[in-house]
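Try it yourself: sequence plus fe (ii) ion, in.
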Amino acid sequence: MALTQTQQFYPGMGLTTTKAPFIEVARSRGELYIEQPYELYSEENHEAWRRLYARIQDRWQRYATEKFLEGVSKLCLDPNRVPRLDDVNRFLAPLTGFKAKAVTGYVPAYIFFDCLRRREFPTTITVRDINSLDYLPEPDIFHDIAGHVPMHTDKRFADTLVRFGEAAHTAARLVREIKDTELQVQRITSILRALARFFWFTIEFGLMRGKNGELKVYGSGLLSSYGEIAHAIESPEVQRYPIQLEWVINQHFEIDHYQPLLFIVDSFDHLYDLVDQLERWMLEGKLNNVAPGEPKMSEADIRSFLEAELD
Ligand SMILES: [Fe+2]
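Structure, out:
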C-alpha cells in the first residue's frame, strides 16, 4: 500500500480487517505491538460489533459453558461499541493477571506462546467487514475479545494458557541443545505441530461436558461464530469424542470450513492436566514424529523457536 509515514490518519477512517491503512503502515515498519488507536474506528466498525454481539447472545446462552457466560458479565463489554482494550483489562487483570495486548496481526508461534506465559494475550484490533459478518479470513477483535477473553477471567483456564506458554518454552530449550541443524528443524516442526493441533482442538474448538452431562462450548473459534457454535453442538455431521492426547496431536485440521471433528474435555482441571501431560510427552520424545499434514509450519514460526530468548 502506497502510504508514507507522513500520511495522516483521521478519526473514523476505519480499522476494518485487511482494509486498515494504520495497520498496513505499522506492519511495514515491522511493528508487532501497537496502541489501539480507538478514534480510528468508523461508525461502520461499531455497527459491525453491535450486530455481531447482538445476534450471538441467544446462542451463547444456549451453547456456551457457564464459565464463559460468567466471564462475559465480568468484563462488562459494551454491546454497542468496539471495546477499548484498556477498559477490558481494567476488569480482566485483577481477576487472573491476564491482559489483552494489541498487535498488528500474525504473531510468530513462539512469541505468541511466550506472551501467554507472561499472561498477555496478543489481540487483533481490526473489525471484520460489515458486509461479511460470517466470513472470517483471519482473527478480528470480535474473535479475540468476545471469543477468547471472557475465558481468561477463569483462573484455571488462565493457568492452562500459561502452561501452554511454559510447554513452548520447554520445546525451545529442548531443541536448542540439538547441534545438527536439519534435525533441529525437523524436531521443532513436529513438536510445534503437536502443540498447534492441541491448541486448536481445545482453546479454539473445544467442547466440555456440562453439569448434567450436556455438551457445552468453550473453544473461542466456536464462541465467536454465529453459525458454527450451533453446528458444533447440533449437527449430526460432526464427530464428537472424549479427548485423547495421542489422537489430537496426530490429527490434522483445516481452517476454511466448519470442523467435522471435535474433542470433549471433562473440566478445565482436565484440560490443565492434559497440557502437563503434553509437556511430559515432549520431554519423553513422544512428540518428535507426529503425523504429517496440517497445520503447515511457516519459516517464521520455526525461526521464532530457534531464535527464542530463553530465560
Ligand atoms: Fe483464536
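One thing you can check immediately is this: The longest strand covers residues 99-103.
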